[in-house]
Amino acid sequence: MKNFSQWFHDILEEAELMDARYPIKGMSVWLPRGFQIRKYTLKALQELLDKDHEEVLFPMLIPESELAKEAIHVKGFEEEVYWITKGGKRELNEQLALRPTSETSMYPMFSLWVRSHMDLPIKVYQTVNTFRYETKHTRPLIRVREITTFNETHTVHATEQEAEEEVQEGIRIYREFFDELGIPYSISKRPEWDKFPGSKYTMAFDMIMPDGKTLQIGTVHNLGTTFAKTFDITFENDEGEHEYAHQTCYGLSDRVIASLIAAHGDEKGLQLPPVVAPEQVIIIPIIFKQKEDIVLDFTNKLEQLLENNGIRVKQDKRDLRPGNKYYYWEKRGVPLRIEVGPRDIENNSIVINRRDTGKKEFIDYDENTITDTVKEILDDITVQMKENANKFQQEKTYSVEKLEQVKKTINKKGGIITCNWCGDTDCGKDMEEQFDIDILGTQEAEVSGDCINCQKPAQYKVLISKTY
Ligand code: PR8
Q1: The domain 281-378 belongs to what CATH superfamily?
Q2: What's the rounded mean pLDDT across residues 426-452?
Q3: Strand order in the sheet with 336-340
Q4: Which of 25, 152, 234, 282 is deepest in the core (most CB within 10 A)?
């Protein structure tokens, strides 16, 4: 892919995912196909969250007084908040923020809900739109001003230990989710200066995009007791004393769809993992004159059979040349194509074509086994797509020992550099400036040797890249 930015822009339009021509910068329209992919993606996520979390829905507006309460938090978001100042012609007594995220909308309510340790833990999530007046260059799905798919989980616990465990749980859920979609990631602990405003620490998932820059695709934050202190979320412990609750929150956005598109797409267009594909199988009847009935009888039956067995299948009967149809569905990322012509029916076989490998194969047709065969192939496609995407992320992660190599490697190859680091903020910021790169974060690892930049003893393995 020569120019990822252009490719990404074009694919949204060509695969009919989104229309970015909406007349507000940073806001786009989900088209029916895009919306379906979004729907199946959310379904996969919600199935994971629902095992141990409950869905809720909070209002979109936050009174200024609540938003302003947590000083560090509001400082982090002050440049990005949209304000509602009027109701009709009247100035509002108190201006209202369009939520940039929901801590300050939820936590005043949590304060009312939590009385004793019996009320804990709280583990809730919501999927909503949030608004951030981003000043950096906006891009559909990647950096938007209306995040239309903000899935945020918020939890409240009695102990620090439990909150710590919930952070691990959040990471586990996101890992499983990304694995299911075949989206590769590197996990690291964000440096102090890049953690979520108000949090104790932030764990982040980053994916290397085809152009070598990384995209943050998910974050899990340990909030400690900071917000509990601000919003007075306390409970009475066994000794009858009031204690502050420990909190976590974690979130994903439209970027999940962006990373899905970027991880698997190619020159032919979109490539969708079966789990989120609106059509998992497309059937193309190869129609010749006089043989039309025979072919359509067959393909109609096949379509029905697959559909009855829970496969999302569609038949393209349009009056177009088969080649055009192949091109059309390849661009839209359908994982598996089945072609059936009169001769195939005579030979009791069908042609299958995998979007991931582009390989064409004749298989014997047996009504009793075809569903299982198709399911097996779809499963294999899922595995292969994930392996290919993971391979790319691994191959683009370079371990580097000398400072000169940092910039050279990133400029030449992109991707993520790992090296030794002391962990010192000044040293980290110095590196970011010197090389025009970002420190993604640190990973737990045995390190020996010196910091690549300041030569003091190294404490961490650090991940560095250019970022979106
Ligand atoms: C929280 N509070 O808010 P976070 N466009 C697209 N995606 C974005 C954008 C944007 N402008 N800004 C952020 N994201 C916490 C956790 C509730 C949930 C994505 O955390 O500010 C990023 O991928 O880190 C980020 O990982 C995620 O939203 C959560 O945002």
Answers
A1: Anticodon-binding domain (3.40.50.800)
A2: 94
A3: 313-315, 281-285, 336-340, 349-354, 360-364
A4: 282
